[in-house]
Write a structure and sequence with these properties.
The complex is a heterodimer of chains A (291) and B (414). Chain A is α/β, with parallel strands linked by helices. Chain A is 33% helix and 30% strand. In chain A, a hairpin with a 2-residue loop joins strand 1 and strand 2. Chain B folds into 2 domains: 259 residues, no CATH class; 96 residues, no CATH class. Helices cover 63% and strands 6% of the residues of chain B. The chains are: A alpha/beta (291), B mainly alpha (414).
Chain lengths: 291, 414
């Protein structure tokens, strides 16, 4: 099972949202990390077939996904960034509707609906109208609907938006449980969401994948470039103006800074073990080291 | 597929705005029906205003007296009686165009005979003219042609003269002459108040059309607005069966709402005024009509035409809904299409324009057209106004609806 992107490009007028992207997805969890406008959502929409690439191709097992039609969509589970729902529908009713759209037989649809609503913690409110749901509940319902057809390709755009920390942990566990034997592509701004569960992390910027690899592999690329220093306020201000600060914490008269830069930023700075968040901030820093 | 249709139907009827529009539409039809019952009145022989059940009873009494065939001889007797009444001292005031019956005679004689008098009088009007009975007193009983001969003469003169700059083709003339010859003469009169009320009320169905396209405007556009299209279009049947399901649900909803309103109209017309006169010829209501139909046939055709007009409007709304990004844009286009013809008058000179205007939904619903000689020639094939509307709306609905499906299929999320 292989999902291949070949020179996939999407342009809106002069703006290139996705730029000649070449990559292959196989079984496993892929975490798409990138700032707003990096092209994550556009890429996901193209993978889901609801947006046509301006050029290039997307293939599933050597077959063009557009020509596969229903056969391809049958393999898909998609949670969009802005999850459209029907306010007057009950949660269960909505799930059964999506099940009908996915061509799931009624008996199985009822069983899967029950299972998934339980799994996402919505079984108690299955008969409640969606308009009464909180943002987090709607998001959980969105996750449940995406998984109704036991998809071989699960595409989740910002799945943890609106979820509280406990729900995020539950979601991460859920994805880990179902990740075997399927392609899971999820995008997020929250690094910790993918740090624990993604087999591969893809960093996107300007429509391109700028880095790809496991968490360890990626973090390794900035080994020796993350520093911590405890200094006075005056020096801290100077360092803030000069470098990209990953974290800043005040301790009485002193300031503890975590800095990402190629060279040692201060004589008291100590190298620390980098994290994925450090990498993210390093890769998406707005300026160069020397401002 | 069945469950998809069920869900799509549920989406339409559960939407609060749709529920409100549906209730308003039904309320309007009920209100128009009640208004018809309450506001319809006449004067009895004593000059008292009568309405409600008394009106129905009185109309039945009058119809009983005049029922039967209106033969040439009877028509002559009616004219003679009219002229006698006018000549009787104290019955008629004034002279010529300004003359009129006294109130007492107006109520006791003219009102009960009004329809038959006007029907006969119109036969002796010049083509294109309507004197509303004022010519009756000028007719010479010895010189005038028998009623049905005069009627046919007038009909042939209209065919020869044409309408505005519209000259009937040979095929049209042949068609209408054939139709005319099928009309049973002499025309049989009787009580048909329910049927004539139906023809008068049918125009209110236009408001049902408006209600329907307001509801249908969001069938596809609503998915885009709510961003539910993102999910739908990625599902197995998101670009196939769901389109059929949406269209079927929309047509079903439109059909049910139309039927509910038709039933209300039927209840008012036939429940209140009675269904007597179903088998009478439509000429008992529209004496000059060239449609060889009974009242029930004429009403059924009218009903079919109304349904097809609503289907055509549904198809058009669905297509626009699938193409446009929001329901309001759809509504704006449909409202223009529906209401602009209200402000477009018939041309005195342009027959083609009039033929097109007559097909626009407002004009089409408002008038059954049974008293018009309006036809659409396609070479040797001629469609009368009613058949043309039925054919056109059916074809348009069938042709447009696949475009709605294509537009939704090709839709790309924003």
């Amino acid at each position: 099972m292989k999902l291949t992107l070949e020179q996939t490009t999407k342009c809106y007028g002069d703006k290139i949202a996705v730029d000649h992207l070449n990559t292959t997805f196989e079984n496993g969890v892929y975490g798409l990390l990138g700032a707003n406008g990096a092209g994550k959502t556009t890429l996901m929409r193209m993978i889901c077939g609801i947006l046509s690439p301006t050029s290039g191709a997307i293939q599933y097992d050597e077959q063009d996904i557009t020509s596969m039609g229903e056969e391809y969509r049958e393999l898909l589970g998609y949670l969009p960034q802005d999850f459209g729902y029907y306010p007057e529908f009950e949660a269960k009713e909505f799930m059964l509707y999506i099940a009908a759209l996915k061509g799931i037989p009624p008996m199985m649809a009822r069983r899967k609906t029950k299972e998934l609503l339980e799994l996402v913690g919505l079984s108690q409110v299955a008969r409640k109208k969606i308009k009464t749901f909180s943002g987090g509940m709607k998001q959980r319902l969105g996750i449940a609907q995406a998984m109704l057809n036991d998809p071989k390709i699960l595409v989740l755009d910002e799945p943890t938006a609106g979820l509280d920390p406990k729900e995020r942990v539950r979601f991460r566990n859920l994805i880990s449980d179902v990740a075997s034997e399927r392609i899971v592509i999820l995008s997020t701004h929250i690094v910790s969401d993918v740090e624990y569960i993604a087999d591969q992390i893809m960093l996107m910027r300007g429509g391109c994948i700028v880095a790809i690899g496991t968490v360890e592999e990626l973090v390794e690329t900035i080994a020796g470039k993350v520093w911590e220093v405890v200094t006075d306020r005056c020096n801290a201000d100077a360092l803030c103006g000069k470098y990209d600060i990953i974290n800043l914490r005040h301790e009485q008269d002193m300031v503890e800074l975590r800095i990402a830069c190629d060279g040692k930023p201060d004589e008291d700075a100590q190298p620390v073990t980098p994290t994925l968040e450090d990498l993210y901030l390093y890769e998406f820093r707005e300026t160069t080291e020397v401002k | 597929m069945g469950s998809l249709i069920k869900f799509e139907f549920r989406k339409i009827y559960k939407k609060r705005m749709n529920l409100v529009v549906c209730c308003i539409t039904i309320f309007l039809i009920v209100a128009f029906g009640i208004a018809n019952i309450v506001q319809t009145y006449t004067y009895n022989e004593k000059g008292d205003t009568i309405s409600g059940r008394a009106y129905v009873k009185y109309k039945k009494q009058i119809a009983k007296k005049l029922e039967g065939q209106l033969t040439n001889e009877k028509a002559k007797d009616v004219i003679a009686e009219y002229q006698n009444m006018v000549a009787t001292p104290g019955y008629y005031e004034g002279e010529g165009e300004d003359g009129h019956f006294t109130d007492e005679v107006y109520c006791s004689y003219f009102i009960p005979h009004r329809q038959i008098l006007l029907d006969i009088a119109h036969v002796y009007d010049e083509p294109g003219a309507q004197t509303w009975g004022s010519n009756l007193n000028k007719l010479s009983l010895n010189d005038i042609k028998p009623l049905y001969e005069a009627k046919k003469n007038r009909f042939q003169m209209i065919l020869e003269a044409g309408s505005g700059d519209w000259n009937y083709t040979a095929a049209e003339k042949q068609y209408w002459t054939k139709q005319y010859d099928k009309i049973a003469e002499p025309v049989t009169y009787g009580y048909a108040e329910g049927w004539s009320t139906w023809f008068a009320m049918a125009g209110f169905f236009f408001y049902v059309l408006v209600g329907i396209f307001i509801i249908m405007s969001t069938v596809y556009a609503g998915e885009y607005e709510q961003k539910a299209d993102h999910i739908i279009l990625t599902t197995k049947y998101g670009k196939s069966k769901v389109i059929a399901a949406k269209n079927i649900a929309a047509f079903l909803y439109g059909f049910l709402l139309s039927t509910a309103c038709m039933l209300i109209m039927a209840l008012v017309c036939f429940g209140w005024y009675g269904a007597e006169g179903a088998s009478l010829p439509v000429q008992s209501i529209y004496f000059q009509s060239t449609y060889p139909l009974t009242n029930v046939q004429a009403v059924l055709l009218y009903v079919i035409m109304c349904y097809l007009a609503s289907f055509m409007m549904i198809a058009m709304t669905l297509w626009l809904s699938a193409r446009m990004k929001n329901g309001l844009s759809v509504l704006a286009v449909m409202l223009l299409l529906a209401f602009v013809p209200i402000f477009m008058n018939e041309s005195m000179t342009n027959g083609v324009y009039n033929h097109i205007l007559a097909l626009l939904p407002y004009n089409a619903i408002l008038d059954g057209g049974y008293n018009k000689i309006l036809s659409y020639p396609f070479g040797s094939c001629v469609l009368n106004y009613m058949n043309m509307r039925i054919a056109l709306y059916l074809i348009l609905a069938a042709v447009i609806i696949p475009f709605a499906g294509c537009a939704f299929c090709r839709h790309e999320v924003q």
